[in-house]
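Researcher: Here's a chain I'd like modeled. Treat it as a single chain, no partners, no ligands.
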Amino acid sequence: MTGIRPTGDWDGRTFAHEGFAFRTDRELIDRVVPFAAEGLSRGEPVLVVAGERVRTLLADEMGADVARLATFSPAETWWRGGHGTLRAYDRDLRQLRASVPTWRLVAEPVWLARDDGRKWSRFEAVANRCYEDMPYYSLCLHDAERLPAVVLEAVARTHPLTWGGDTPVPTAAYEDPQQFVRSVQPEWRERPRSATVTSVVTPKEVRRGVLDRLVDGWGARADDAVLATHELVTNALRVSASAEVACWFEADGLIVEVSDQGPGLPDETLGYVPPRNDQEGGRGMWLAWSLADDVAVASNGTGTRIRLYFSH
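Model: Modeled as a single isolated chain. Structure tokens:
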């Protein structure tokens, strides 16, 4: 397979993010094996985290070279929800960066086939922003015979690179991370007249306003709703003299909306990015996003509204 350039012009200094959709075993092998072999020949750690079928195919094709991989582990054990999975992923990335100059990763997010795993596309999108200075190549594998068309569409929109047959090429459908996240968040509708609306000037007022809307049976979810709302109100009061908290029920869930009249969010993707130890901002958003089942944002230069969705 002469002429194949598994990583194209990647220089090993910044993040490269490729989405590779395969339909046959041969397509998979022809893409992954040269990618791994090139890394091993250059002395770069090569990590493979994939489903059982993919691991079996690679083990058969690579033979003894599998033992040279830095990691060869099952993806099935990795899913911990979007925030939990990215938190573990982020920890491992930063440990790698502290120990090696560059590396490459082959990853198959098998959980995208699950209803509760499809939100992972949002984390794939923001990775392009939060890991842009990480010196590694991420080759993300997606089984086009198994995954729904809507998931494969999201893959194209969240990966700046795709496979061109002999080298990686730019993905035509790729979108800015913030644009993508906004497009897949819950549809924004006007809040109902039945909503309870409270103006607050201190975060401690949140508990009473939210708990008043919750009846028996919510248990720990009530605590999640209160803590998440508290974090957003704290952020809002840093940029606005007061914040407004609105609560209402929709279907079997609770929706809490926090709004302010500040200058707007500088980066809406922070709720999907694990905060670093030396980071001053963004922790409240990350915590609120991780506690809620879903989030929607409307933000501009005259204010911000954030909706948190909690299922019963």
